[in-house]
């Protein structure tokens, strides 16, 4: 049977037990939309969870466990923070699991025994900075656009924006090969952003622009994206002359 006492009665009943609580898992930053678990050992036969919002106000009601709880007993704070007792006995261990949202930035998760709460802040990782594009390499009928890999721990994927075909391509790679666009003497632009698990990204740092002076149309460009690959097909151009590109900041 699940026993979750209110924090007040928990304090009254067990205030003679003092622990040295510690977070055994407290990530320095967390990713949006990716469930995360913090782990706490209260060092005592009681354990309490409290969540404070950005203003320092309590979120929901605290969850408290005692030596009378069973391992596996769960609790909930505000419906968003789920706790579970993982180790019973004289030194209780419990996990709290939640899915970070932007408004949880700077929330404080507290854990401990009576009178000795320790803190773990919820820090949402920064938006990944935009990758730095490298030079485009031109081949007879295609181009390759590479960029610097993102160091963000919350990277989801890269979005490459090709204005000439008004298309945004998602990829996990750090370069993309495309057919030389079909429109004659038109300026084309390619830019890349790093998208995090919350769908956030920084504006592209720059945009590679080039003009392909194609003597004949490349026709029927098709880009079909599946989960893991991008299939590109086009009708071959016989000759391509005078390709160049410029870098605009
Ligand atoms: C509790 O959290 C820790 C750290 O994330 C994890 O290794 C462990 O498997 C979790 N235990 C349970 C029962 O969820
Ligand atoms: C979070 O806390 C830090 C340090 O206390 C502060 O600089 C920052 O502005 C806070 N962010 C939010 C979103 O409240
Ligand atoms: C824990 O966080 C609360 C609220 O931000 C703060 O008042 C308290 O001083 C912190 N305790 C520790 C040990 O840092
Ligand atoms: C990524 O690199 C930038 C610039 O070098 C640095 O400021 C940032 O702290 C790094 N982030 C991570 C998660 O390593
Ligand atoms: C692609 O680039 C065009 C032109 O710069 C811009 O208007 C559009 O918003 C971009 N699309 C995305 C998805 O970034
Ligand atoms: C990127 O990799 C992840 C994990 O392997 C996968 O789920 C996702 O579909 C990939 N995204 C793209 C655009 O290929
Ligand atoms: C592309 O432009 C070049 C130079 O202006 C011209 O000679 C060629 O015929 C054009 N190709 C097409 C398919 O319009
Ligand atoms: C892309 O999809 C269209 C319609 O399903 C199909 O006709 C075409 O052959 C596909 N192209 C590639 C390169 O797979």
Structural overview:
The protein has one helix at residues 7-14; strands spanning 22-25, 36-41, 46-52, 63-66, 74-77, 81-87, 93-98, 108-113, 116-121, 137-138, 142-146, 155-162, 167-171, 175-179, 187-196, 207-213, 222-225, 230-233, 241-248. The chain is mainly β and 249 residues long. The protein has two domains: 7-121, Immunoglobulin-like, CATH 2.60.40; 137-248, Immunoglobulin-like (Sandwich). One 2-acetamido-2-deoxy-beta-D-glucopyranose is lined by residues 161, 163, 168. One 2-acetamido-2-deoxy-beta-D-glucopyranose is lined by residues 151-153. Keywords: Signal.
Spell out the helices and strands N to C.
Answer: HEEEEEEEEEEEEEEEEEEE
- Regarding CATH, which class of the largest domain? Mainly Beta
Estimated structural class = mainly beta
Rg, Å, rounded: 27 Å
Number of strands: 19
Number of continuous helical runs: 1
What's the arrangement of strands in the largest beta sheet?
1-2-7-6-5
Q: Give the % helix.
A: under 10%
Distance between the termini: 64 Å
Question: Runs with pLDDT <50, length 5+?
Answer: 1-17, 214-249
Protein name: Fibronectin type-III domain-containing protein
Signal peptide: 1-19
Keywords: Signal
Give a topology summary.
Blueprint: H1 7-14, E1 22-25, E2 36-41, E3 46-52, E4 63-66, E5 74-77, E6 81-87, E7 93-98, E8 108-113, E9 116-121, E10 137-138, E11 142-146, E12 155-162, E13 167-171, E14 175-179, E15 187-196, E16 207-213, E17 222-225, E18 230-233, E19 241-248
Antiparallel strand pairs: 1-2, 2-7, 3-4, 3-8, 5-6, 6-7, 8-9, 10-11, 11-14, 12-13, 12-15, 15-16, 16-19, 17-18
The structure holds 2-acetamido-2-deoxy-beta-D-glucopyranose (8 copies).
The site of one 2-acetamido-2-deoxy-beta-D-glucopyranose has 3 residues, from loops.
């Amino acid at each position: 049977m699940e026993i979750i006492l209110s924090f007040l009665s928990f304090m009254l009943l067990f205030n003679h037990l003092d622990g040295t609580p510690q977070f055994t898992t407290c990530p320095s930053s967390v990713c949006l939309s990716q469930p995360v678990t913090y782990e706490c050992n209260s060092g005592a036969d009681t354990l309490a969870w409290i969540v404070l919002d950005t203003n320092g106000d309590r979120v929901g009601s605290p969850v408290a466990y005692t030596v009378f709880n069973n391992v596996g007993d769960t609790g909930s704070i505000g419906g968003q923070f789920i706790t579970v007792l993982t180790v019973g006995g004289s030194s209780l261990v419990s996990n709290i699991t939640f899915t970070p949202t932007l408004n949880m930035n700077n929330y404080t998760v507290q854990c401990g025994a009576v009178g000795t709460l320790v803190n773990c802040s919820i820090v949402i990782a920064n938006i990944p900075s935009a990758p730095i594009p490298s030079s485009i390499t031109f081949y007879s009928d295609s181009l390759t656009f590479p960029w610097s890999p993102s160091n963000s721990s919350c990277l989801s994927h890269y979005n490459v924006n090709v204005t000439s075909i008004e298309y945004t391509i998602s990829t996990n790679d750090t370069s993309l090969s495309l057919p030389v666009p079909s429109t004659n003497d038109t300026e084309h632009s390619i830019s890349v952003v790093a998208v995090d698990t919350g769908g956030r990204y920084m504006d592209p740092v720059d945009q590679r622009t080039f003009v392909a002076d194609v003597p004949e149309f490349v026709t029927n460009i098709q880009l079909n994206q599946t989960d893991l690959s991008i299939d590109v097909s086009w009708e071959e151009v016989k000759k391509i002359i005078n390709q160049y590109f410029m870098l605009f900041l």
